[in-house]
Amino acid sequence: MHFVDRHREKIHQSPMSSRLLWACLLLVLLLVLTFGAALFLFASLHNTKKDISCSLQIQFSVFQNDMERYFEQLAVMGVNLSEDMSAEVDKELALRQMSFAQLNDSPEVLNALEEKMIEPLCRRLRQTGCSGAFVLLDATVNTRMEGAEHSRAGLYVQKSGADTPTVPLLLYRGSAEVGKAHSVMPHRKWRMEFQTDQFPDYDRWMTPGSAPLYQSYTLTERFELPGTSEEVQLFLLPLRGRDGTMYGLCGFEISESYFKQNFAQPTGFDRLSCLLAPAGDGLAADAALSSGTTGGYYHAPRNTLVLRSMGGGLTQLTGPDSAYAGISQLCRLSESQSYRLAVCIPMADYRRLVLSGNLQMLLIGLFIAFFVVFCCMNFHRRILSPAFRQFEEDRRESRRRMDELQLERQQMQTELSRLADVCRNESVPDAFQTFVAGIPTLTKTERRIFDGYAAGLRTREIAQQLDIKDSTLRFHNKNIYDKLGVSSLKQLQQFVAILNSGSGSTPDESGPKKAR
């Protein structure tokens, strides 16, 4: 069976076997890389809702930081404005040696005060990010006229356009003569004095307090400015004299159009709304200031939006005719006042983004599955099928060679048996005696070669078994033939057959052995 074992070894060491091994390793590597890429992509896209939540959280943080910085600026500028206006009132009262209560029915004094206040008021307005500034004195020029209990003197100046240092200013309330003298033209809805019954919570804001100015500012609810279609919120601070007397109120106006224009947010969302609303269980969109995106989108939600958690940090904001998904949290803008901030996208956009993310995951999964199937089919067609065919051909060839070898050995055994029978019927020739006598004279290597021939092996097989060259084997063959007195391998095998059949005698422990 030496031939069969060697033939199998050749099959395992064939080029096709090596190609198959490397192809399998390459396929395994490719599949590992493919699944690694798949895991990476799925990890990136595994939760679209979480990605949307993270993006909205970032958007909310930006909006919240904008609001905090903005109201810090308003607070600083408002404190300076209150101090400036209070100082002007104190100086004028001291100059005229009169009390604040005596300002009622004193149009000349009130006009003089407005003359001194308008320049610092306009200067603070231009320095501050807002749409208007005002100072309201708790006094009137004529206490006897109808509605005098709600009429109050003061100045209210607005920016007439975009927030630039050179934008013209308009006088909404105050003396028209004073305004024109300082290049502040009257507003188309100009009035001489404020109407406190149209001023939100005037009596509450006029309540004296002892808190320092930097803790006393507040933000009113959004309301429609009297005589206009503009909706605004007022950033209020008290006007206090040196003796603690409440002179009135001052502050800045934040109009809806100003807020929309100056706080539009850069974003990756197609539609985004940012709201600043009073604190409450829901979100009072009707009382909120809102902005859109720098890309041009703007939509102001209306009515009261009901808040409900969606999980994952998201909040659903639902109104009578609209729904949004976003982030909503309470934010403290002053020592005594909290507001609700919200950034949100339409619910339709949220669902579209979730669906788009799921479709991306599905398409990536299908692509990966197709790629794996394609690689496997291509590997089977180019590598496995040829290898299987080659293996089948090698197996059939090996079986055919084994059958041929078995047939040859059977024929050789038959021929040797026939020769042995012939020799038994004849006298043993002298050559056979010489052959038997020469066996003990063989060297160790020559005896191994002799045993191989006696076992029926061919010269090539013996050379491979002993790991010697063909020339070396021929040299040993010549010595063996000379010592045994034979002239050919065929004659040697004939004498071996006679010897094995028991026709001749052999020296002790020197006879040939049958192949195992």
Automatic annotation (TrEMBL):
The keyword Cell wall biogenesis/degradation does not apply. It holds the Pfam family GerE. CDD domains: LuxR_C_like. SMART domains: HTH_LUXR. The keyword Transit peptide does not apply. Residues 388-422 form a coiled coil. Residues 435-500 form the HTH luxR-type domain. InterPro entries: Sig_transdc_resp-reg_C-effctor, Tscrpt_reg_LuxR_C, WH-like_DNA-bd_sf. The chain crosses the membrane at residues 20-45, 359-379. Keywords: Coiled coil, DNA-binding, Membrane, Transcription, Transcription regulation, Transmembrane, Transmembrane helix. PANTHER family: DNA-BINDING TRANSCRIPTIONAL ACTIVATOR DEVR_DOSR. This is Helix-turn-helix transcriptional regulator. It comes from Faecalibacterium faecis.
